[in-house]
Amino acid sequence: MIGLAAVLLSLCGLFVSIYETSLERQEQRASVWPRASVAPSLSGDSVKVIVENSGIGPARVRAAAVEHNGEHVAGWRAMMERLDIQGSVSTSLLNQRVPSPDSEIEVFAIRDSTRALSNSIWVGNLDITLCYCSVYEECWVTAMQNCVDIVVPDSARDGDTDRGPQDPHRRVDGCGYIQPSGI
């Protein structure tokens, strides 16, 4: 009877130890959780795209892609050609960057007198998808359009067709399924 009680007590100790270890791992992962967002900054004819990490850990950008009208675009220049935008542009590579906590990176800036770029953003034709991971290889996907109030013309509305801001982060197993643009 004493031997059985000792085995039962040892098993209880083992389960408590496993549970404690699980809680410690969750705490470690939470202590370095990134939260990256892609957002446009539109002011007059100035258009900027900013990536911000508001999390408490670094966000390792594994893949970034630009889409116009649902089609993959090779990079910033290709996007400007599609929209027939001329002018000097300031760009910064986003793929493989590691924004630190509470930092933001300006990845694209241009003066667009035709406002073709800002209009494409506001009506939902232009999107930037970002896949980022924590130091523990937990990954999330976010898209610029999830953070933007898309303007839908009244003639196109049928009930709830316009969408507002959503939770812009979706947990994924990895970033391999995203075809990166050269951004």
List the helices and strands and how they pair.
Layout: H1 2-30, E1 36-43, E2 46-53, E3 60-68, E4 71-73, H2 76-82, E5 89-91, E6 103-111, H3 116-123, E7 126-133, E8 139-143, E9 170-172
Antiparallel strand pairs: 1-2, 2-6, 3-4, 3-7, 5-6, 7-8, 8-9
Tell how many strands the DSSP assignment holds: 9
Share of residues in strands: 25-35%
Oligomer: single chain
Order of SSEs, N→C? HEEEEHEEHEEE
- How would you classify the helix and strand content by structural class? alpha+beta
Mean pLDDT: 84
How many alpha or pi helices? Answer: 3
Termini, distance in Å?
Answer: 69 Å
What is the radius of gyration?
22 Å
Q: What is the percent of helical residues?
A: 10-25%
Largest sheet: 5 strands, antiparallel
Shape: elongated
User: Largest sheet, order of strands side by side?
Assistant: 4-3-7-8-9
> Unreliable runs, pLDDT <50, ≥5 residues?
151-165
